[in-house]
Amino acid sequence: MQRLDTPWGKRLLALSIFSLILGGWFAYTRHREASALLPAGDGREGACALWFVGSSSIKRWDSLEHDMAPWIAHNRGINDATFEEILPRFGNIAPDTPRPEALILYAGENDIARGRPVRQIVHDLAQFLETRSTLLGDVPVLVLSAKPSPGRWHLFPQQKLLNAAMVRLLPHMSDAHYVDITSALLKDGKLGDNYRADHVHMNEAGYRIWSEIVSAKLPEFLPEKTVRRCAG
């Protein structure tokens, strides 16, 4: 047995203490991630609520509540998130949480940027939709297509593969619908002036395109009486 009053013993003691600290930090991190919640959003409470869930393209939609009026839009986006960050937070929704009328999801773009295969992203999307069914029942989900952008134009081929895979998947999932935002951002195969200075996220004009598309699609997937009550 190594004596602790020798140089090697002191090193072993220091290593043991460091290992305990590191193990505690990892345990705390896992607990924090497992118990994390979706952002609450700034939308008003009440009927006619829409949850916008996803990555920073949702989080940075500063005009969301105004753009989607008279619907009550809740911005529940997470900056720079992949499905790996979104799934556990979405799974921590409290059972007594008031259900939205619909959920709009934008996710997968960052997964592609980090090199995740399309099949894994689609698997995560299916898991998200199954969690929705468990926690929120038949709340419709509008899944937005992966958007092209100047800063990630080199990833557009993979984004198109993801979009095609989502088109194939969603008809087999309950109350899940593909919404194409890609086509409206392309004019003759080129991108318009719809992006912020970072060349990735939408500017006001770009988000106006998104809101017009989502608003037009909601009546296709929601009961007529809900649309009349919420959107006049």
Automatic annotation (TrEMBL):
Keyword Transmembrane helix among record annotations: yes
Keyword Membrane attached: yes
GO molecular function term, any single one: hydrolase activity, acting on ester bonds
InterPro entries linked to this entry: SGNH_hydro, SGNH_hydro_sf
Pfam families: Lipase_GDSL_2 (PF13472)
Transmembrane segments: 12-28
Domain SGNH hydrolase-type esterase, residue spans: 67-209
Keywords in alphabetical order: Membrane, Transmembrane, Transmembrane helix
Top-level taxon of origin: Bacteria
Protein's name according to its UniProt entry: Lysophospholipase L1-like esterase
Organism phylogeny: Bacteria, Pseudomonadati, Pseudomonadota, Alphaproteobacteria, Sphingomonadales
